[in-house]
Write a structure and sequence with these properties.
This protein has 3 helices and 6 strands, in the order E-E-H-H-E-E-E-E-H. With 193 residues, it is α+β, with helices and mostly antiparallel strands. The strands form 3 sheets. It has a two-stranded antiparallel ribbon with strand order 1-2. Strands 3-4 form a two-stranded antiparallel ribbon.
C-alpha cells in the first residue's frame, strides 16, 4: 500500500509493516507528533483519514480473498472425498452409480466401473487427467496450501484491524488535543479582555 506522503518515524520508534501494510504508530504526545510531522492539525487529520481509508480498502480486498479461500477449501475437500470413493469402489470391483451436474440444473446419471484416473478442473478452461493417486496428492497439497493461506490471511486481517484501531485512536487524540488547545486559547483570551 503506497501513500503519497508518509509521516516520519517518531523518535526511536520503528514503524513496522506486515506484507505491505504499514503499521500505525501510537501517539503518546500529540504536540511532539505534530512538531515531528511538521504539519498543522488539519493536515495531520487529513493524512490520518487518508491512511484510514487506505486501510479500509486493503481490508475489503483481504476479506474478498478470505471469502474465496473459505469457498475453495470445502470444494477441495469434496473432491478428495470423491477421489477416495472412486478408489474404494475400484478396489471392491463394484460399479458406482452417481448423478453429476452437466449444466446448471441439468443432471445425468453415470455408472463408473474401474476408474483408474480422474479429470480435475484446474480453471481457465483447463482440465487434466490424473491417476487417482496423483489426484489425491495434488488435492492434498492444494488443501494444505489453501489452509495455510487462510491462516496468513486471518493474521493479516487481525494486524490490519489493530492498525485501524490505532489510527482511529490517533485521530481522536489529535482532534481532542486541538479542541483542548482552542479552549485554553479562548479562556486565556477572554481573561485578558
Amino acid at each position: 500500500m503506497a501513500t503519497s506522503s508518509s509521516p516520519p518515524q517518531i523518535g526511536s520508534e520503528v514503524v513496522a509493516e506486515r506484507r505491505g501494510i504499514p503499521a500505525a504508530s501510537f501517539v503518546k504526545d500529540v504536540q511532539a507528533y505534530l512538531n515531528q510531522l511538521g504539519l498543522d492539525v488539519n493536515n495531520t487529520l487529513a493524512f490520518l483519514q487518508e491512511r484510514l481509508q487506505q486501510y479500509k480498502v486493503v481490508e475489503m480486498k483481504l476479506l474478498a480473498q478470505q471469502r474465496d479461500l473459505q469457498a475453495k477449501i470445502p470444494d477441495i475437500e469434496k473432491c478428495l472425498d470423491v477421489v477416495a470413493t472412486l478408489q474404494a469402489k475400484k478396489d471392491s470391483d463394484e460399479a458406482l452409480l452417481t448423478d453429476f451436474e452437466v449444466s446448471e440444473g441439468i443432471y445425468a446419471r453415470a455408472r463408473i466401473e474401474n476408474a483408474d484416473s480422474v479429470c480435475l478442473w484446474l480453471g481457465a478452461n483447463v482440465m487434466l487427467e490424473y491417476s487417482c493417486e496423483e489426484a489425491t496428492t495434488l488435492l492434498q497439497n492444494n488443501l494444505e496450501n489453501a489452509k495455510a493461506s487462510l491462516e496468513v490471511l486471518v493474521a493479516d486481517l487481525q494486524f490490519l484491524r489493530d492498525q485501524v484501531t490505532i489510527t482511529q485512536v490517533t485521530i481522536a487524540r489529535v482532534y481532542n488535543w486541538d479542541v483542548h488547545q482552542r479552549r485554553v486559547k479562548n479562556t486565556s483570551s477572554s481573561q485578558d479582555s
